[in-house]
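Assemble and predict.
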Amino acid sequence: MIRRRRLPIPRAWVSPLAILGIVIAIAWVIVAITAPLWVPYEPNAQGLPRLQEPGVDTLLGTDAVGRDVFSRLMTGASVTIPLALLLVAVSLVLGTVLGAVAGYFGGWIDEVLMRVTDLVMAFPTVILAMVVAASLGPSLFNAVLAAIVVSWPAYARVTRSLVLGLRQQNYVLAGRLLGFSPLRSLLVDILPNIAGPVVVLATLDVGTAILLLSGLSFLGLGAQPPTAEWGSMISSAIQNFDAWWIGAFPGLAILTVVLAFNFIGDSLRDVLDPVSSGERQAAGVATAPTAKSDAAPSGTAAAS
Amino acid sequence: MSALLSIDDLVVEYAGRTTVRAVDGIGLTIEPGEVLALVGESGCGKSSTARAVVGMEKPASGTVDYRGETVPPLGLRRRPQRFTAIQMVFQDPNSSLNPRKRVDAQIADGIAAARLRGAAGSTPQEWLEAVGLDAAMASRFPHQFSGGQRQRIAIARALAARPDLIVADEPISALDASSQAAVAGLMRQLCLDAGAGMLFISHDLSVVRVIADRTAVMYRGRIVESGRSETIWADPVHPYTRALLSAIPHPDGLGRMPAAPAAEAPAEWSASIREALDRV
Amino acid sequence: MSATVLAIDGLRIAFGSTPVVHDVTLDLRAGRVQGLAGESGSGKTVTAMSVLGLLPRTASVSGSIRLGTTELVGLRRKQLNEVRGRRIAMVFQDPSASLHPQLTVGHQLTDHMRRHLRLDRRAAKARAAELLDRVRVPDPEGALHRYPHQFSGGQRQRIAIAVALACDPDVLLADEPTTALDVTVQAGVLHLLRNLAIERDLAVLLVTHDLGVMSAIADDVAVMRHGVVVEAGTREQVFRSPAHEYTRTLLAAMPDGPGTNPEGTDVE
Ligand SMILES: Nc1ncnc2c1ncn2[C@@H]1O[C@H](COP(=O)(O)OP(=O)(O)OP(=O)(O)O)[C@@H](O)[C@H]1O
Ligand SMILES: Nc1ncnc2c1ncn2[C@@H]1O[C@H](COP(=O)(O)OP(=O)(O)OP(=O)(O)O)[C@@H](O)[C@H]1O
Ligand SMILES: [Mg+2]
Ligand SMILES: [Mg+2]
């Protein structure tokens, strides 16, 4: 008999910000899926008067070649958001698997992996992503690849240190004494207990991913014209500084998505740490420990 | 016929800025059906000995043999099946259960290990009841139990694996007196019935006296007194053993505090006294 | 009779629809040790945790817990944080819960002393080493640089006691503080608690299932069963003439010691 695990959260507890975040995120996802069905104009059609101010016909105005900004913004959601989610998912899986293996088995695997992540993390993220994207050639696909290259190490490091912390826990050892193979031990005893912090990290990272992808597109290294992508829309706005609406609305769109995922991530962090270990430590002493090592983005997963 | 467990000249060290020698050359044997208690001061190396016995700590020197075979360290390989008959109950009941797994599933892991070795099966509910818990609690998570209840669940999991060598590190210290008696009795009975041996670690001599056939008193990594439990209890020879016995507080309601220990441990506690060993 | 510092009145705690504590009333007085005994699972830990608002969100707490004039039940998190550690400190049944695994013992002890007692680094360090010495952690200076996992179970428990005492609280909630300790070290900890009660007017709630410990140090004793206080009174009353059947069974279940305690010293 398998029963699904219910998260024991009283409904009243979920914070207003989290609800706001979820609503915004869901709204954008719906837009991304359905936009082609209801936007007033073909996003790449150039038939409208150029640089028209926001008004009744064109809700958010038109750009320098006479395309409807509103239609482009809405269809742009279906480019940016799925790619950002994909990017985060791939980095998450790649980083978690490599980090878990390194942390659990140690030895030379760990050595090699940690040196690689050191190398990647030694450079500023955006610059490195630019270099990689430029050397692969400008295209949206390459921009995503470049973004993955720079984002997986963060997951690998966090996972590794969480695994290192749990590897010597008594319940993990008890499983090994019962004859669990290392793989089973990792899958059954360790991963479920580090999933919380890693998922929180990923949620907070969606915002970063969107900024990174738009940033690359803005620099001309990502989405190529005429694709309606938020970053490249902002970049095309630069040539028409007076027409503020061309850049401002995509900018706002990015802002709302980034904030939404940050709200969700923050409250997820609280929810997943039910008996807040920080508070217990605070009761032993006066306040929660100030110095948090990079290992524990949210309390200690093991504390029950 | 070799003993179930024989420890010879075991040394356990922890590397660090200064190397800590937690266990300093001890020897012990356990025969099938026998309960050996290891008692001693906090920090004297009891848990370190236990960890070395099950292979969690690699001995710096000396040997740990289970049925005449060296116990392999818990490494990157799966533990050979015959060694899953060595089970441990950990000192800290809170970290010995997986927080994200229901307790029946955790006890079932123990049962599965027993089945794989060809031993008799059982159900998690039976074990919960055996340690004095309500079988209806089976589908709860560990954090929904009290400290003593968790400790009993950890015991249930170890026993469910039908071990023939149990290393129990302070298994009942968090229980009240009546549960202590019941659980200690259960553990002892299972040992006797199955011909299993038990290394029972405790700091509480009054518990040890009822459960253990033999007792070894450890002080600063060494065994200072050993032999039949009754003998040691009735007539302790070593000064440290005497100090241990006299500091036990009694529930007489008189508000007598046990004597405060001196700032420096008396030198005589470290003395090695030949007559105190292997007493019958 | 000394002043009541912490008054628990009609406390009820339930997890979902399952009540685990019904109507518990306890008074902690300055300079006195209130013992709380009872069988495993009777609600001792839950009661102590509720004082500091540390129960999981699934718990619903009602009744009243007053620290001086401050009502703690339903207090905002921010105000609770002011109380935690500074005015009321807790030693958890599970010592690792009050220690951060990735910070050195010295760091955990000094960080808060520096902030709350406004000590400089030197003084905080000296006080930390002194506290560790008082709870009998060997080599206190060296211990400051080590991490919690490098200590034995009993040593961790003593460190947790030192951490709780670091900021000089008014109330100490000690949940089974001596379970992992052998009797000689336990005697040291009991003396420490007793002295703090006398010198600093510390009010102590001592949760323990060890009636021997209870008899040695508690001034007042309450016995819980199935979430109810079945017996409460002074130590002499409870041990000498227990009124409730359950207390009598508890006392009878104690494995008896080797005669009386010749070296025992009377505290009164
Ligand atoms: N990982 C470690 N690194 C360094 N020193 C350690 C480590 N683990 C234990 N020690 C030290 O080794 C000694 C023995 O520890 P051990 O855990 O075996 O004691 P114990 O007898 O089980 O005590 P207790 O009754 O308090 O649990 C202690 O002094 C402890 O500080
Ligand atoms: N999070 C929870 N959800 C549901 N029930 C809980 C939860 N925490 C504790 N309980 C239940 O509440 C009761 C009281 O628990 P508590 O921890 O206070 O016991 P205790 O008196 O401290 O026992 P012990 O001596 O074993 O530590 C127990 O029956 C326990 O199963
Ligand atoms: Mg130990
Ligand atoms: Mg408890």
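The pocket of magnesium ion (ligand 3) is lined by residues B 46-47, 91, 169; C 152-153 (CB under 6 Å).
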